[in-house]
């Protein structure tokens, strides 16, 4: 019996893996339309047409047209979270982030790079679209939940420990703020000022971004997160 045959299927008959892929494809097309013509001017029918599905199918997978942006918005933190999940205890945060982000820069598939660009656009658009802001904050909340596991394992404490929760919340805030600044810088292009003394080049260069994230995480956690663990 092959893997597809044994994959758990919900009542509707669609595998969870296929459902996730379809939701992401719908999200890509919705994000493109939102960025091109605005959220208000985009209808569920247009999203359905862009994906080649019925409007009824769109509503089967998403509660509203704005919710269609959620899967692609989550792509804005997927890379960083995958890197943090693989952080070895004998490595500093700076060294691990720099090495892994440089490696991933060359190994990422074109579709992954496109998804990250769309995520940046939706995060940027969220500044003036409350519904998209909700999607971004939901992604940040999921990030915080994952960070509890990562930090708890690194510090040898349970995920419900108060210090673990505080560190996870602080790091999630770092991810949110820096992702927003990087998105502004990247989309604006060379010469865009993003505040806090950080220029576009610094924030869009992979190694510089790694240093920026590591430094901010150390500051936010009072130095508790960042060093190698013996």
From TrEMBL:
Domain HTH tetR-type: 20-80
Domain of life of the native organism: Bacteria
Keyword presence, Nucleotide-binding: no
Keywords: DNA-binding, Transcription, Transcription regulation
Keyword DNA-binding: yes
DNA-binding region of this protein: 43-62
Record-given protein name: TetR/AcrR family transcriptional regulator
Pfam families the UniProt entry points to: TetR_C_14 (PF17754), TetR_N (PF00440)
